[in-house]
Write a structure and sequence with these properties.
alpha+beta; five-stranded antiparallel β-sheet; 3 helices; globular
């Protein structure tokens, strides 16, 4: 997750944070905290698994990444706290579906 979100050019990292905070209204934590990944709170870590969460008044978003050998599963869960959350996620989901594979591909290339 750190390689996908933090090991990117500054402009891209700030664009991501702007979308999360400015569009979705997610409350992000400190960038430099080891308990956060680009502001997302680390909920759980374990061998081959990490779960991150960010909350907004209208929705909570959780990203869970599991690595098993050469396979990686990235699951995103959006919990609607209010009706506006459904609308916000409907706007964000297409961008999310494009960005995640690009970020993962970039992280894999950089780590190889």
């Amino acid at each position: 997750m750190r390689a996908s979100f933090e090991d990117v050019p500054l402009i891209l990292r700030e664009l991501l944070r702007t979308g999360w905070a400015g569009v979705l209204g997610l409350r992000l934590g400190p960038r430099t905290s080891r308990r956060h990944v680009v502001g997302w709170r680390v909920l759980e870590t374990g061998p081959g698994r990490i779960a991150l969460e960010a909350r907004a008044p209208s929705l909570t978003v959780r990203n869970v990444v599991t690595v098993d050998g050469a396979r990686l599963l990235w699951a995103t869960y959006a919990f609607y706290e209010r009706r506006a959350g459904r609308v916000l996620w409907a706007v964000a989901a297409p961008v999310h579906h494009l960005a995640v594979p690009l970020l993962l591909g970039r992280a894999v290339r950089r780590m190889a």
